[in-house]
């Protein structure tokens, strides 16, 4: 079960890693970053609703006293991460935003230790450092020096929001199915996004495109690949993985993004950075280390 959960977490990181391709296509069509974020969230909510409707309608049910978990996870984790991450990208650079987002394992380990009493093992400590170094090398943060303090803070805020998904998720999964958590988290995130980003602007971009059906198809594909599938498998993976470990394993995202950039866009790839991240992922899964009996 634990190995399957680990594979699901790593798969989610892979799917997030190739989201840059879809983001660039959306930008080429004319969508702004907030509009792309809104599309991702809404498509995922609809897709999850359809999935639950045909699979098991009882998954729509939840105790009203627990609604705060879905609201917090949706507004703070899902919407917060997406908004702060995109905002940091616009005002700094992709490399700076990426490394700040992937400080998330540090915050998850700290928060899990304080509130969930999760133990800090030497494997986790070394893995966090290794993953962080790998992300720095992969993203090339050292080449970017134009980030102001405010935008550094928004980037870190994105990392904290991203990390909190693991925390809120692990709490909710003690009572609810991963499908239920994903659906309601994205429902509240979508509501927040629609309030912040008027849908009229999205409709205008679609109607102004040369091929409306192509644009709609790209919107659906973007939502499915960059949000629906990765968040779904990540949430399912959390069922059998500690939040801290999950956050570290998801760091395959920048590694995959780097490899994608190399093969698709001819961008430079850092073998050393990739090696650091792979080492972190293998370490938290006890690769080469005998488990205590």
């Amino acid at each position: 079960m634990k190995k399957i959960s680990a594979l699901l977490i790593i798969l989610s990181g892979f799917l997030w890693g190739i989201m840059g391709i879809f983001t660039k296509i959306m930008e080429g069509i004319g969508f702004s970053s907030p509009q792309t974020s809104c599309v991702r969230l809404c498509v995922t909510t609809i897709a999850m609703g359809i999935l639950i409707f045909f699979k098991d309608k009882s998954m729509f049910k939840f105790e009203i006293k627990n609604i705060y978990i879905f609201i917090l996870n949706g507004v703070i984790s899902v919407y917060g991460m997406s908004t702060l991450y995109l905002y940091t990208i616009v005002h700094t650079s992709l490399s700076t935003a990426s490394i700040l987002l992937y400080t998330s394992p540090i915050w998850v380990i700290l928060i899990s230790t304080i509130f969930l009493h999760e133990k800090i093992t030497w494997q986790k400590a070394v893995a966090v450092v290794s993953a962080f170094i790998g992300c720095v090398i992969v993203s090339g943060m050292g080449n970017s020096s134009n980030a102001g303090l405010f935008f550094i803070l928004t980037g870190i805020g994105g990392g904290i929001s991203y990390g909190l998904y693991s925390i809120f998720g692990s709490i909710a999964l003690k009572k609810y199915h991963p499908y239920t958590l994903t659906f309601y988290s994205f429902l509240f995130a979508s509501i927040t996004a629609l309030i912040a980003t008027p849908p009229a602007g999205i409709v205008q971009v679609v109607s102004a495109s040369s091929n409306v059906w192509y644009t709609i198809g790209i919107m659906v594909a973007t939502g499915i690949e960059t949000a629906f599938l990765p968040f779904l498998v990540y949430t399912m993976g959390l069922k059998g993985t500690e939040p801290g470990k999950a956050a570290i394993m998801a760091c395959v995202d920048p590694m995959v993004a780097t490899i994608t950039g190399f093969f698709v866009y001819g961008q430079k790839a850092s073998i050393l950075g990739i090696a650091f991240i792979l080492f972190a992922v293998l370490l938290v899964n006890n690769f080469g280390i005998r488990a205590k009996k």
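The radius of gyration is 19 Å. The chain has a mean pLDDT of 82.
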